[in-house]
Amino acid sequence: MSERHVVVLGAGLAGLGFARHWPGCRVFEADGEPGGHARSHEFGGAWFDRGAHICHSQDETWLKLVTAAAPLHEMTKSTVLNHKAGRWFAYPVQNHLFDLPKADREAALADFLAAQEKYRGREPKNYEEWCRFQYGDFLLENFYRLYTAKYWHVPMAELATDWLGGRLLPSQVANIVAGAQGAVEEKQAVFRTFRYPRRGGFFAMLAHLADGVDVRLNKRAARVDAAQRTVTFADGTEEGYDALVSTIPLPELAEMIPDATADVRAAAAKLRALRQYCVNLVVERETLSPANWFYVYDPDIEISRVSFPFSLSGECIGRTPIQAEVFLPQSARPNEEALLEKAMADLGRLLKFPASAVIAAEIRHYSRSYVVSDLDRAAAVRHVRDWLRGRGIETTGLFGSWEYIWSDRAFAGGRALAQALREKPS
Ligand SMILES: Cc1cc2nc3c(=O)[nH]c(=O)nc-3n(C[C@H](O)[C@H](O)[C@H](O)COP(=O)(O)OP(=O)(O)OC[C@H]3O[C@@H](n4cnc5c(N)ncnc54)[C@H](O)[C@@H]3O)c2cc1C
After folding, report:
1. Residue 240: beta bridge partners?
2. Residue of the nearest CA to atom 1 in ligand 1?
3. Domain limits for position 360
4. Alpha helices by DSSP H, 142-242
5. Among protein residues, the one whose CA lies closest to atom 38 of ligand 1
6. Which atom of ligand 1 is nearest to the CA of 16?
7. Are 251 and 294 in a shared domain?
8. Which of 412, 402, 363 is nearest to 18 (CA)?
9. Alpha carbon of 37 to ligand 1 centroid (Å)
10. DSSP state letter for 122
């Protein structure tokens, strides 16, 4: 079936995963480089990703493909912290209640144990119920609701639970009780061990995936004629296809097909993703924190997550690069300079360095990062993708399946689609 002319939109990991398994296809990428959201860039003598990226995959095929591509730092015991109201405590909070003030610890444990009894066997209908059933009211109100508000910008009761697997931990009573009685080593967290390239950022282990793939750069798809099977690019050129594989955001794809029906457009318009700002700093300090990364619960601090790229790569050159991530709704248009200034001041206060120690600072903006798994998502995605499939357009990847997936799954999704198309009659 490889003789079918397949056109791929987007040279992120999903597009590359497809293309590597469909010889002869052409990949059209809007940017000047392949890699999409997995790309890294150099700034101030350090490498930064588009938000903290680590390789914590358990997928043997993926690991075989990517771990030999660059010398790696193998982290066998990550340190992940939380910050709230001037206090540092280990992640995830429920497993480390001993780090909280005594009254909070006791209230959290009592509520947790009560929830285990009260909600046993109940199926949560949304993320709020999931947290209440798993962790109890105290942790829900004092931690999970606060973090959801600044990270997802959606009421917890509007979020589904289909994104939690491999991210949030179901409670284990023995762990939580032990963690309330004394400091314990974190054994349950998903990111306990990970790999990261020693140089060049996360993308250093992935860049080779574009080798041998026919990627046409700076080609932004602007219009798709599903009846004539042609794509028109922003530069005015056109490409015909027998089958179209799209990894670009579903709402954009629906917008560029003139005969998309009103219900398809309406479903696509329901899909939400977060806008992301990364504040990247290099600070003239050997070390600033024992953490690889930490989460910030304080409502008056816009930053949700802070990571230390050298602690991921294992480098040590007397300076500390820091990346702070701010997530906002799609509609937000903050003043970037003010956001950068505020983030620098907040980081200086949290990590105790003066503004004069900052030797490089930038803010970068990514219009889409995490997909919001609200209660409308699954049905809306199904509706849009079914309509597209009926017109010879398959979609895959983070924004093509509109699903909160890691890099290994984005690539594997592309590969699986190539296999499925091969088995499908043309
Ligand atoms: C904040 C954040 C942190 C993450 N952390 C991790 C992590 O720690 N570990 C991990 O494994 N994964 C992580 N991920 C997930 C990982 O980055 C993604 O799953 C993966 O990069 C998605 O690849 P993709 O090809 O599906 O999408 P993308 O990377 O978005 O690729 C789509 C491509 O399409 C291009 N495009 C868009 N519009 C057009 C158009 N009109 N015409 C042509 N091309 C177009 C884009 O430029 C892009 O290159 C993280 C993701 C985010 C958002």
Report:
1. 230
2. 51
3. 41-91+189-199+274-367
4. 145-151, 173-181
5. 248
6. 25
7. no
8. 412
9. 3
10. P
72-119, pLDDT tens digit by residue? Answer: 999 999 999 999 999 999 999 999 999 999 999 999 999 999 999 999
Q: Rounded to whole angstroms, how far apart are CA atoms 370 and 275? A: 8
Ligand 1 center–CA 397 separation, angstroms: 8
Using CB distances shorter than 6 Å, the residues near ligand 1 are: 9-15, 28-31, 36-38, 51-54, 220-221, 247-248, 252, 276, 369-370, 397-399, 405-408, 410
Same domain, residue pair 266 and 379: yes
55, 219, 248, best to mutate for ligand 1 pocket (most atoms within 8 Å of CB): 248
Domain-embedded: residue 1: no
**From atom 2 of ligand 1, which residue's Cα is the shortest distance away?**
51
Look up the CATH number of the domain holding residue 46.
3.90.660.10
Average pLDDT, the chain: 95
Residue 2 has pLDDT above 70, yes or no: no
The pLDDT value recorded for residue 426 is 66
The pLDDT of residue 1 is 43
| Residue 371 token pair | 């997909």
Residue 330, CB-side half-sphere exposure with 13 Å CA sphere:
10
- Cα of 358 vs centre of ligand 1, distance in Å, is 30
Contact between 25 and 263 (Cβ < 8 Å): no
Question: Same structural domain for residues 84 and 194?
Answer: yes
Q: Are residues 80 and 162 in the same domain?
A: no
Q: Over the stretch 205-223, which tens digit does the pLDDT of each residue have?
A: 999 999 999 999 999 999 9
Alpha helix stretches (DSSP H) within 207-296: 250-255, 262-269
pLDDT in tens, 45-70: 999 999 999 999 999 999 999 999 99
Last residue of a domain, one of 147, 181, 215: 181
Q: Which of 399, 407, 409, 411 to mutate to test the pocket of ligand 1 (most atoms within 8 A of CB)?
A: 407
Label each residue of 332-392 as H, E or C: CCCCHHHHHHHHHHHHHHHHCCCHHHEEEEEEEEECCCCECCECCHHHHHHHHHHHHHCCC
Query: What spacing in Å lies between the alpha carbon of 370 and ligand 1's midpoint?
Result: 9
Q: How far is CA 357 from the centre of its chain?
A: 30
